[in-house]
């Protein structure tokens, strides 16, 4: 999901709101992700408050002139806590959306992983997401559209990002009909509207404890919105985003069931150099992990080192984590523990050697994501 990330946020946000007394009926009435919605740009970069959950997700790989390399993640979540305009709390301080944000830096040279998180409501302008233009923020972290580019700012202990990202390809619409409707499970509404900007030229500055350095590289953006959640039998997912040096990109997510099987609605998208794409069904991609890593913090055992094969295009990829320890324990925001990590990529396509970079997200390994 990205993937299916919107699913776990629907669940974990209720944990944050456990002190509010809400009837089951009051949580109904959000707009569902169903066929017929037509994504248009740049309008759909902005917020969609009729849907319960929405996120804007950036991952990327940066390098300096001296050869230092960094991976980064910057994510903004919006979760609505009322329905049909019905306020749960009559206080003037009540805000009908909760905003969360995560940021992480993988410092490849220093072999260090650092992350931070934020949780705010819209009251007093602490956080928000505009509906008429693309501008989301959480305190001093932000993502916004400035003409044909996007501006990203985020800061965690020891690192501050200030980046300009420029799309090199048009938005890629995911889903079986390639209209952006991404089905995540059986039944109407178990879906999201999902698109990606799969190749973003990236330049800007990175503030570190050693000073300020100019950086450049590639980024990936996911934007997803919907109102559904995991089905009872689903426990989590593995999500992959890959940018290859031959100008192809790949997105893939596997939603896992209790018994370890992969949900048949799992899917992916292969993006060609000209920006056109092909939908990938679950059986079109073979995924194998070769090792595991046990987190000393959470005790979770995550798969590591993957081989991905797509026989129809004669593509074989080998993914290697930059660091094993790229786990986020977000007790102060979404309260979900997950692994989100930078990976290096090598392999072959139609007999030609290729390499690239990517990100992998692993959820549901600590406990089932559950409402």
Q: How many helices in DSSP terms?
A: 1
Count of beta strands: 23
CATH architectural group: Beta Barrel
The H-level CATH homologous superfamily, spelled out, is AttH-like domain
Taking all Cα atoms into account, the compactness measure Rg is: 19 Å
- Distance, first to last CA: 19 Å
Largest beta sheet, briefly? 13 strands, antiparallel
CATH class: Mainly Beta
How many domains, in number, for the residues? 1
Order of helices and strands: HEEEEEEEEEEEEEEEEEEEEEEE
What fraction, in percent, of the residue positions are helical?
Answer: under 10%
Structural class assignment: mainly beta
- The CATH topology is AttH-like fold
- Global geometry: globular
Percent of residues in β-strands: over 45%
Sum up the structure in keywords.
mainly beta; AttH-like fold; 13-stranded antiparallel β-sheet; ten-stranded antiparallel β-sheet
Describe the protein.
With 371 residues, this protein is mainly beta. It has a single domain, classed as Beta Barrel (AttH-like fold). The chain is 3% helix and 53% strand. Strands 1, 2, 3, 4, 5, 6, 7, 8, 9, 10, 11, 12 and 13 form a 13-stranded antiparallel beta sheet that branches. Strands 14, 15, 16, 17, 18, 19, 20, 21, 22 and 23 form a ten-stranded antiparallel beta sheet that branches. β14 (234-244) and β15 (249-257) form a beta hairpin. The relative contact order is 0.17.
